Write a sequence for this structure.
């Protein structure tokens, strides 16, 4: 699978947040995109996920453009920005609600993803009683649960304790071997060095190879 | 069942309270009033049978006009329930209740980033359809409540729709156009509530995109509802009086949805409401049409709530 981005431009009030960005992301790789806050990395992921519409350029999944302002890329999982689920539902119920949309997985699939992120023991707690780390884990669990071909993860390890981070990293490496495409963004490069095959940098909407001299 | 109760407990509590109040009125004050009238007729009959009373004024009236008409038809009972019981205040709060429930349904997705997680799993148009439908289910809340109350009226009125014999029947209230519908009148009544409820839900959907606060939006949709009535009754009414010399204000009375039977032509009344639904529907479509703007709105909302 190739995710091809051609001359992508995204503006907000005439200000270009992403400037003529082109890149080919290939499955079987973990890509890390490093960028400071406001560099355009979250916007890039949202455009790829079809949540934002580009002003010009293309986002093509194996040559197919899903970003028409209504559709969504098939087989994609995202965990972007600070997670926020429905407060009055438990962690498990929140995932069940999302899983019921496409009906790809049942209870076992949900429990598997909660196990991967070390949250299965807290699955019956109300979401509003979750700590920041638990919320982040639930966000990752929903991204993993339907076993998508493409994973877009924005600052995925925020607030998660070391043991779980290592477990999640091991799982991501396993997904890579299954030929999945994984794109991770962060503002802390050290989070990604031992995980990513290709490290990129985004600054003022321009994507380039990461300069290791930094 | 448990899930249904969990999801709809506020609507169920509201329905139960209104139904209980309605039945207490029907089988309490209203029924005892009818019994008192019957007792009065019986005692008057006995009184006037006595020779010394026959020529009294009250007995002359009694023999001329017959007994005081205590028996009533179903529509008369229903009318009394709407106007004489505590339920007579309902027209003022129906809009508020429907707006509140619709916005509550909506806010589940507005107050979290769930919407974004849903939108990578289904089309935006389908997402909107689902949350709109979950809000529009409340247009059936009050029709169901009134249908249950109507059953009480049927029982109390012995299924009597014959208006010809009774002077105190609904002939004094409704025009013949509506009375001729007899038992079918309730269908028109319920249809009318559904039509007006659609307006309330659309107002709620529009206000949901105005501010970031659920409670302000509830109040705002209620204010919009009053503005709609003022525009109709005052502005359009005034212009019609000045220019066309006709007073259409009753057609634009959005505040009292029970009083549609006051208007001479129901089809004009219905046409105005359908036009309002069309305008509000188009406005709602324009407001929600853009997926990115919708997402940015819930993101801004989330930033404020954090």
């Amino acid at each position: 699978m190739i995710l091809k981005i051609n001359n992508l431009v995204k503006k907000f009030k005439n200000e270009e947040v992403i400037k003529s960005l082109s890149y080919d992301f290939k499955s079987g790789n973990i890509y890390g995109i490093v960028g400071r806050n406001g560099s355009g990395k979250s916007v890039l992921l949202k455009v790829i996920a079809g949540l934002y519409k580009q002003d010009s350029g293309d986002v093509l999944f194996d040559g197919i453009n899903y970003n028409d302002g209504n559709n969504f890329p098939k087989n994609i999982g995202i965990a972007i920005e600070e997670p926020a689920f429905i407060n009055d539902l438990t962690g498990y119920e929140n995932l069940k609600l999302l899983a019921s949309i496409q009906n790809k997985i049942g209870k076992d699939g949900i429990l598997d993803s909660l196990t991967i992120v070390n949250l299965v023991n807290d699955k019956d707690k109300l979401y509003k009683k979750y700590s920041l780390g638990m919320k982040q884990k639930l966000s990752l669990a929903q991204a993993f649960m339907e076993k998508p071909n493409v994973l877009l993860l924005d600052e995925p390890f925020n607030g998660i304790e070391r043991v779980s981070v290592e477990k999640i990293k091991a799982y991501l490496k396993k997904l890579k071997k299954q030929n999945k495409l994984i794109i991770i963004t962060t503002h802390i490069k050290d989070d990604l060095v031992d995980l990513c095959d290709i490290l990129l940098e985004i600054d003022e909407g321009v994507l380039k190879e990461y300069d290791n001299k930094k | 069942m448990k899930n249904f109760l969990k999801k709809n407990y506020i609507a169920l509590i509201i329905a139960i309270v209104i139904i209980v109040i309605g039945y207490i009125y029907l089988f309490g004050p209203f029924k005892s009033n009818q019994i008192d009238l019957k007792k009065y007729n019986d005692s008057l009959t006995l009184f006037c049978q006595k020779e010394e009373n026959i020529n009294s004024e009250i007995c002359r009236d009694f023999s001329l006009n017959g007994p005081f008409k205590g028996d009533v038809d179903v529509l008369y009972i229903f009318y009394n329930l709407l106007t004489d019981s505590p339920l007579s205040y309902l027209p003022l709060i129906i809009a508020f209740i429907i707006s509140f429930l619709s916005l509550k349904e909506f806010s589940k997705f507005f107050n979290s980033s769930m919407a974004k997680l849903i939108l990578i799993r289904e089309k935006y148009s389908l997402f909107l359809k689902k949350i709109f439908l979950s809000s529009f289910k409340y247009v059936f809340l009050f029709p169901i409540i009134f249908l249950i109350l109507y059953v009480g009226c049927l029982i109390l009125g012995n299924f009597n729709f014959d208006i010809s014999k009774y002077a105190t029947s609904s002939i004094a209230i409704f025009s013949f156009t509506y009375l001729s519908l007899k038992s079918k009148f309730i269908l028109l009544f319920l249809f009318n509530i559904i039509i007006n409820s659609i307006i309330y839900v659309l107002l709620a959907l529009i206000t949901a995109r105005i501010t970031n606060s659920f409670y302000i939006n509830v109040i705002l949709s209620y204010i919009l509802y009053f503005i709609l009535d003022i525009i109709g009754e005052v502005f359009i009414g005034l212009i019609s009086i000045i220019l066309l010399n006709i007073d259409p204000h009753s057609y634009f009375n959005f505040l009292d949805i029970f009083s549609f039977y006051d208007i001479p032509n129901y089809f004009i009344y219905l046409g105005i409401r359908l036009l309002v639904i069309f305008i509000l529907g188009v406005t709602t479509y324009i407001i929600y049409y853009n997926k990115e703007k919708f997402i940015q709105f819930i993101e801004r909302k989330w930033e404020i709530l954090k």
